[in-house]
Design brief:
5-stranded mixed sheet; mainly beta
């Protein structure tokens, strides 16, 4: 079961920009839907590439995806996932519509005995060398409630079930990579 899960990471050359908030919004750090009446405003994050290339996935670090990816994912009615419209200011006078993927489906399923990680003095996880999911915990949750989730123990890990990964990769998207859980560490995004 663990091998059916993949961690989403950004990919691509340095001209695929990171994103950052252009205004403050509350509620995105909580495991619940957000009530937003207008698109959130984002901008290119520092360092801004000289010639930025906008692709299908950018990192906020929350996933921010293109409309074509959203059109594949939204009809799947993913439990605990909300697609929030996001206007990304690329340069003065140029704003593109993207979608912030707000995943509020948190699952506490880290196998603390098998995983390899470092903690801070507070007990919070600082980094991962090896991620191992507790298959017993996952097995008790119906698949439709765990196709996409964030790891409650480390909210930076966005996990996608193989069935979702296959649908996304069928589009041949740019700007993202999926790492199978047993091949992922928090440095995976820096691998070629």
């Amino acid at each position: 079961m663990q091998l059916d899960y993949f961690v989403l990471e950004r990919a691509g050359p340095s001209n695929y920009p990171l994103l950052e908030w252009d205004a403050l919004y509350w509620g995105f750090g909580k495991p619940q839907p957000v009530a937003i009446k207008e698109p959130v405003r984002l901008r290119l994050g520092d360092p801004v590439p000289r010639k930025p290339v906008m692709v299908d996935h950018h990192s906020l670090p929350e996933p921010v995806i293109s409309t074509r990816l959203k059109e594949v994912l939204e009809p799947l009615e993913l439990f605990g996932v909300q697609f929030v419209p996001a206007d990304v200011k690329v340069r003065e006078g140029e704003v593109l519509r993207y979608w912030l993927v707000h995943v509020y489906n948190e699952i506490s399923c880290l196998d603390r005995q098998q995983a390899k990680f470092t903690t801070l003095p507070s007990g919070r996880i600082f980094d991962f060398d090896r991620l191992v999911l507790d298959e017993k915990v996952l097995g008790e949750i119906p698949l439709e409630r765990r196709r996409v989730f964030i790891l409650a123990e480390w909210r930076s890990a966005y996990l996608f079930h193989r069935s979702i990964v296959e649908k996304v990769l069928a589009l041949q998207p740019e700007g993202l990579r999926f790492f199978r859980v047993d091949e992922w560490s928090d440095s995976a995004g820096f691998r070629p």
